[in-house]
């Protein structure tokens, strides 16, 4: 089951698993199509662009809380943007002690008790408080944007927006954006009945500030006494790996495909087992499809699980094992699994 947990750690984009806040490097852009623009309120595009730009360009420090299924985890974050340079420190406050430092796309994760360090380069994957770097056209094709009013979050005035899904393939999202900067202060994922499935939010936050680069760069370089792991990931294409979706899942587009070690700690095997991860996005929600060789010793029987908004399907496909994870309805996850076909 360890390899299953590793796949889920790689697949979850919310704070519950990685608690890594990677602000996307590009803002939402592009005018909506005429058919969509006629059905959305004026200013919807501007609101989404503002949220994305704030995540990419703002400096902030604070405490984050993530709640799902009655369980809450938290982290302390310091995030600074100076020109094209981004620095970040993230400290997990629950469970095993973990620190993470980032300078642009270079990330160093430290487990002090285990004296283990993982050094890797990451693409700028969107996570709270960012939205995926995609066009507003794509997002507005899948969601209707409504302004609900104004509230306070972490002592800050915020505008409240609702992203209402246009079909049953995705969940609604409620966003609280800082009134002055646009920084996303809270994000709830809602079930069809309106109940909160997951919530990511700042408990306290301070905007602005100036980075002291050495406070981030020094811990990333001084790794004496740590077992240093450098997992290698390479970009690939789903078709090049011999797979294809026989029919697109409505609203979702492939945004990345990577071959990487299944367990970045290197504890499962040496050399590490490999997994192909394909990420699909609808402009807000993301679904990860993991493909690896089937191993009867490591893989359980086919199953589906649900935790909050996150749904997972695991199934055998001949000599292969598929894991599909996404913060979308179970039927959407099942559709990805059913339509994935082996071409060679």
Strand order of the largest sheet: 7-8-9-10-11-1-2-3-4-5-6-12
In CATH, the architecture of the largest domain is Clam
CATH overall fold name of the largest domain: outer membrane lipoprotein receptor (LolB), chain A
Q: What is the N-to-C succession of helices and strands?
A: HHHEEEEEEHEEEEEHEEEEEEEEEHE
CATH class of the largest domain: Mainly Beta
Distance between the termini: 28 Å
Helix coverage percent? 10-25%
Question: In this structure, how is the largest beta sheet organized?
Answer: 12 strands, mixed
**Overall pLDDT:** 84
- Low-confidence blocks of residues: 1-42
CATH superfamily of the largest domain: Lipoprotein localisation LolA/LolB/LppX
Number of helices: 6
- Derived from helix and strand composition plus strand pairing, the structural class reads alpha+beta
Number of domains: 2
Radius of gyration: 20 Å
State the total count of DSSP E strands.
21
Estimate the global geometry from the Cα principal axes: globular
Classify the beta-strand content into a percent band: 35-45%
Describe the structure.
The protein has 344 residues and is an alpha+beta fold. The protein folds into two domains: 2-221, Lipoprotein localisation LolA/LolB/LppX (outer membrane lipoprotein receptor (LolB), chain A, Clam); 232-342, MucB/RseB, C-terminal domain (Phosphorylase Kinase, domain 1), CATH 3.30.200.100. The protein is 15% helix and 44% strand. The strands form three sheets. It has a twelve-stranded mixed beta sheet with strand order 7-8-9-10-11-1-2-3-4-5-6-12. A seven-stranded antiparallel beta sheet has the order 13-15-16-17-20-19-18, sandwiched between helices. Strand 19 and strand 20 form a beta hairpin. The protein starts with a helix and ends with a strand. Mean pLDDT is 84; it is low at 1-42.
């Amino acid at each position: 089951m360890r390899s299953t947990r590793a796949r889920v750690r790689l697949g979850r984009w919310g704070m519950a698993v990685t608690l890594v806040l990677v602000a996307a490097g590009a803002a939402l852009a592009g005018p909506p199509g005429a058919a969509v623009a006629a059905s959305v309120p004026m200013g919807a595009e501007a609101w989404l662009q503002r949220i994305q730009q704030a995540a990419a360009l703002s400096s902030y420090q604070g405490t984050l809380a993530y709640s799902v299924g009655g369980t809450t985890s938290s982290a302390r974050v310091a995030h600074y943007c100076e020109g094209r340079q981004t620095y970040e420190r993230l400290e997990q406050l629950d469970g095993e002690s973990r620190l993470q430092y980032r300078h642009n796309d270079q990330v160093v994760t430290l487990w002090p008790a285990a004296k283990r360090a993982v050094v890797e380069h990451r693409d700028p994957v969107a996570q709270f408080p960012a939205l995926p770097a995609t066009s507003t056209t794509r997002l507005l094709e899948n969601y209707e944007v409504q302004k609900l009013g104004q509230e306070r979050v972490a002592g800050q005035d915020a505008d409240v927006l609702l992203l209402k899904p246009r079909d049953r393939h995705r969940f609604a999202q409620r966003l609280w954006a800082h009134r002055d900067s646009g920084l996303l202060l809270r994000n709830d994922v809602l079930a069809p009945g309106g109940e909160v499935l997951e919530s990511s939010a700042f408990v306290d936050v301070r905007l602005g500030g100036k980075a002291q680069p050495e406070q981030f760069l020094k811990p990333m370089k001084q790794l004496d006494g740590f077992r240093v792991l450098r997992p290698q990931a390479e970009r690939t294409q789903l078709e090049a790996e011999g797979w294809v979706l026989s029919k697109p899942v409505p609203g979702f587009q492939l945004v990345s495909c990577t071959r990487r070690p299944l367990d970045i700690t290197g504890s499962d095997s040496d050399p590490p087992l490999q997994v192909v991860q394909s990420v699909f996005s609808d402009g807000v929600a993301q679904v990860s499809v993991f493909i690896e060789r089937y191993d009867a010793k490591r893989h359980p029987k086919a199953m589906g699980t649900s935790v909050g908004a996150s749904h997972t399907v695991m199934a055998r496909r001949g000599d292969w094992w598929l894991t599909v994870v996404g913060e979308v309805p179970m039927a959407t996850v099942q559709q990805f699994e059913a339509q994935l076909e082996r071409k060679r």
